[in-house]
Amino acid sequence: MKKLKLFTAVLSFATLAFFGCKSKDAKQIEGDWNLVQYKIGEKQADFSCATISLLQDENLNIKVSGFSGVNSFSGLYKSSGKKLRAEPGFISTKMMGSKEDMEFERLFLNSAVGADSWKTKTQDGKILLCIYNSMENSELVFAKASIKDANWTLAAILKNGGVQSIDADKSELPTLSFNEENKASGFSGVNYYTMDYALDETAKKLSFTLGASTLMASGSKEAQELEQQFYINIDQTATYSLFGNTLTLRSKDGKTLLEFVK
Predict the structure, then answer these.
(1) CB of 72 within 8 A of CB of 47?
(2) What is the Cα gyration radius of the chain?
(3) C-beta neighbour count of 31 within 10 angstroms
(4) pTM score, two decimals?
């Protein structure tokens, strides 16, 4: 398991006056977002390796999590209208990457933890979330993320009472993709399949109706067993989470059934 460390950013704006959260405003930014552009000062660059997920809790705080290029991070924002204030205690996993990736991650996290305001805008038909850090003169621009944006490859599966990783060296790994007509399709280990799906991206609900598949029987015993368990698990799917490059499907009682990567 990855070890967690306290991400120590100086919250110089912590003295901002907040007079209560406005849940209606915060609801606009709930969901999963992919970083598409990063600006700091006069510098500007495009990125696709970082994400952020925002969810308002029962206390009207905004739970924050995401992937910063090398590591995963999480924390908490306070919100008042379009203003933000990060609470102490942002944490990040402790993985090492290339010098370039680590430098980007440092800048990204400093901007995210030091964020003091946000706004949404529409560009080319897409909803964008802009998070600002006025002290660093930085702007993080995110596009709304969807499980329909990528093709997914199985990385782990609930089997024999535990979640087991799938050998990444295997060429015949199950896959999953979604189209706009509520049809899911992919490769299940031996056969190819199509099925209907119902998706509520706000509530993170997802379910499948098993449909048609090819009738190949040439796979190994291991592949056939994996395929059988894949269909059992996908039929039990009730909710999902999208975190960085990982899509996790869960049962009604919260058990992890399947994990996919982009």
Answers:
(1) no
(2) 20
(3) 20
(4) 0.65
